Amino acid sequence: MEATRTATEITAAKGSRRLVMVTATDEPSARLADRAGVDIILVGDSLAMAALGRANTLTITLDEMIHHTRAAAAGARRALLVADMPFGSYQTSVADAVRSACRLVAEGSAQGVKLEGPRSLEIAAITAAGIPVMGHIGLTPQSLHRLGGYKVQGRVLEHALALVEQARAIEQAGAFVLVLEAVPPAVGAAITRAVTIPTVGIGAGPSCDGQVLVFSDLMGLSELPLPRFVRRYADLADTVRAALERFASDVREGRYPADVECYPDPSGLAEELAAHLEND
Ligand code: KIV
């Protein structure tokens, strides 16, 4: 059996092997990802949309993230379990950031946390508290309103260079790995070359040190339009819908349950019951 992943081991993987990260929302998704051998399971705040039907990630709370992280932790044995710090849990002060990260670890059993943006002070303070931090730059969905939508970032030289500087600052602050979301491949490659920590891309081209996808997108569970970078590896929505339709039809037509799906009647019980009820 492969060794359990640690943040140190993930950082050391740069240049020697590509990292695989997938999001999970609960025990089954984390267990399946873990047994498939992914390196990192991220309890991403995208679960607000993927699992809770919200319009964006801004309304998910720290308590909700702790709840889902704890569920995913029950399924993660070998992969490193990282929890997203939700909007509002780290933007207010460095002390709040450390407190929120500690709750995700103590109450949710996370082994690391992710936060969005070039937040060197928060990253350094959480790292100093003993918690590995994953950075996240490029398209940062918690800044949706400032960015004016889910748009590709770093498309002009000045912005691309600013992203390289952010990546360097995040590395300096002590992050162990860095997510790059929705940037042109050239920017993904430049940032990957500029830092010694691994980059994990989502819509950031093939040169990143690893790739991440959201579980429900990868599995074809979502029925919403998907971003360009998503590759569906299964069509679970179709599979699940077809199974539910078969179940409904079997119930309605009396084909379910069959004899083998029933506990056997103890001998004579049916007759005794009928006799009793007739005498009532
Ligand atoms: O919340 C999330 O799923 C994420 C990934 C897209 C990296 O942050």
Structure description:
By secondary structure, this protein is an alpha/beta fold. 41% of the residues lie in helices and 13% in strands. The protein has two domains: 7-234, Phosphoenolpyruvate-binding domains (TIM Barrel, Alpha-Beta Barrel); 240-279, no CATH class. It is built from twelve helices and eight strands. It has an eight-stranded parallel β-barrel, surrounded by six helices. Strand 1, helix 2 (27-35) and strand 2 form a beta-alpha-beta unit. It is elongated, with a radius of gyration of 23 Å.
Looking at the structure, what is the overall shape?
A: elongated
Count of individual beta strands: 8
Q: Distance between the terminal alpha carbons, to the nearest Å?
A: 64 Å
* Named CATH architecture of the largest domain: Alpha-Beta Barrel
Which stretches of 5+ consecutive residues score pLDDT under 50? none
What binds here, in terms of ligands, is: 3-methyl-2-oxobutanoic acid
The arrangement of helices and strands along the chain is HEHEHHEHEHEHHEHEEHHH
Derived from helix and strand composition plus strand pairing, the structural class reads: alpha/beta
Strand content: 5-15%
Tell me briefly what this model is.
With 280 residues, this protein is α/β, with parallel strands linked by helices. The protein has twelve helices and eight strands.
Task: List key phrases describing it.
2 domains, TIM Barrel, 12 helices, binds 3-methyl-2-oxobutanoic acid, alpha/beta, 8 strands, 13% strand, single chain, eight-stranded parallel barrel, 280 residues
